[in-house]
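dumping these here so i dont lose them again. two proteins, back to back, each one seq then structure tokens. dont judge the mess
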Amino acid sequence: MKQITLNIKEGKYHFFMELVKSLDFVQVADGGDTKEEIIANLKDGFKEMQLYKEGKIKGIPLKDFLNEL
């Protein structure tokens, strides 16, 4: 099996994905998060922000965070 990477314009993405999924010889691995996962991640982030504001956890300086990348 071969693998390709495509860059699709945002406005055409859903159309293209439906088209590709309709092909029986194509396997689609859409690596995006589900809506539920995105919401859960946002909730976790807000909880962490609240804990930081309350002084219960420490933050990481931006420079250190960027250096880890």
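---- next one ----
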Amino acid sequence: MSDGQREALGVLARSQTAPHRLVQRAEVLLLAGEGIANTQIAQRVGLKAATVRTWRGRFAEEGLAKLGKVRAGRGRKSTIPQSKIDEIVELTRNGKPAGQTHWSCRTMAEQVGVSSATVQRVWAARGLKPHLVHSFKLSNDPRFEEKLIDVVGLYLAPPDNAIVLCLDEKSSVQALDRTQPSLPMTKGRAATMTHDYKRNGTTTLFAALDVLTGTVIGQCLPRHRHEEFLKFLRKIEREVPKGLQVHLICDNYATHKHPDVKAWLAKHPRFQMHFTPTSSSWLNLVERWFRELTDKALRRGVFHSVPDLIAKIEEYLDAHNDDPKPFIWTATADEILAKVARGRVALQAVNQ
């Protein structure tokens, strides 16, 4: 045993994170290097003498190169033929059970004549998850690249002496009341609420997220028309300090392009509109804030009236603006365009 091998084995034998079997093997080899007999090593380490003899023999043949590897042929042999595994994989990828949209472990097990646990292991080993489906939509906007570069450029390199606001409307927010009182959380039981509800009206939340600071300008209005949109623009005009240019990122909803809106914008040249591509709401960061609002203030809320709902939304707005945290955009336009290009190629291959 060389000095370098002895040093490496010493580090391994003292390791607190290496596998226990590997630490044991290092201890055995260090003791063997001191000339101690196999039976004595086995007693010290708590192994059989035959195991010590085997490990010493492997070290003599291979050194440290394959110290932690398990030799081929060791362990329990698979009892499922490869043809059966191939059948499971092929059916999972290219077939469906009769009258159903996707496979489960049990339906696949019944189809191929194995246990559901076997199906689960085959799927897990190959990363197959037929129970999951992810939604997507590729924009068909002819100006997709131009709009994408414009919006992402504002996120990654906002202009000087300007504020960038992501603007959108969360329409038809319902004031839902429960038919019976909810029960509080207690030890061993989660909080409960009835599955049915009573509708008490709706409101529309107009919100503009400051990309730099994370603060939100918000206003609840009864409807979702260009008149209400103009009211919200006037609110932004009042709250944004004079002298700052205002860059508004919004979607292609007709309200945002109404002639009255265009006329107002013409009279307020510091406002500049930037439209996201169609079917690309994920580009607007205020959508991420809407998700926070829904999860933290609306989904479990109990609202006896529309004014009650508006009060709770404004309460959440105030709490958020007391300690705002911006959402950090990291993806470049080139990275997004490359990903979209791969998606189009995959769709084209499926369609063919």
